[in-house]
User: Fold this.
Amino acid sequence: MKTRVILLLSLLWTTLPAQIAGPNEPRYTGDGQLMRPDKYREWVYLSSGLGMTYGLVETAVANAFPERFDNVFVTPEAYKAFLQTGTWPDKTMFALEIRYSTTKGSINKGGHYQEGIAALEIHLKDQKRFPSKWAFFGFGTADQTAKPFPANSACQTCHAKNGAVDETFVQFYPTLLPVAKAKGTLKPLTGN
Amino acid sequence: MKTRVILLLSLLWTTLPAQIAGPNEPRYTGDGQLMRPDKYREWVYLSSGLGMTYGLVETAVANAFPERFDNVFVTPEAYKAFLQTGTWPDKTMFALEIRYSTTKGSINKGGHYQEGIAALEIHLKDQKRFPSKWAFFGFGTADQTAKPFPANSACQTCHAKNGAVDETFVQFYPTLLPVAKAKGTLKPLTGN
Assistant:
């Protein structure tokens, strides 16, 4: 009886965390495409921007009119690790969700609020799978899988050069920037 | 031995959910002030706006320049219940976080992104405590407790009249609006 109970308790402790953590790790198809993470809206929110443009990466999305919102989420396990260490563990996933903006609906009289999704990009760290450690994937609204961007893509190049922590734009995440400063993990970039 | 094991397992099942749910329920001081929820950034994100203004509630915050972002979060337990039912259970808490916006920092060349907190408002449902069922609380950046707004406040009046579901602005939460439509819980308001 005692052995069976210990076994039962061990199973509880070892299978419960795996069931919780599993959906927040990257899952790939047999031919190396990333499967769309369907629960990213329940990850931890980092920040939003409206109509953000960049010097090197002037994309059609960023220049669209009406301007679009971008919402950034990160996997809860990675967020908790970052609060402790100021760095991103392996299997970290970011979701960049781009949404259409609108105004003057319902009782709203001015300003901008969010509507439907225009696109979803995933930025993830998978050190064994990608020689550059990090990779980007772009999902259209109906895409369930996506191939990685080339290692020399504009996204990859700009993030590697300008990311404040590792290859990520912590300089735009107001709750994480103070953590990185306190942990001493900010790269010495101009303007950080 | 068997009895002790059953007791142990019962304790696991009954105490674990309580420990997880506790921090996401409203906590009050002895004199009825709400204690600032310190983990609201880990609640489920609903949406953001920039510089949103309303017909009846033209607040100084909404009209500020540069325009301010508002980020809305809801307690995870309430979010899960809403996905199932299209309604908000008792103890639901919303956080409206108002943040300053800025532009042209780091590599950003245009558009708006978020900086420090300007204010935090909590909107919650506590049916036994408040005759109107819902109440609002405003926290300055340093406030650890807040008194409820009067029951006839502009916030309360506008939400009761214009909230698409119960007293909440589901019309501005793009992932929840389709749920409310599917569950038939939208109020018959103009423009919904």
Q: What stands out?
A: Chain A touches chain B through 50 residues (CB under 8 Å). The first strand of chain A starts at residue 34 and ends at 35.
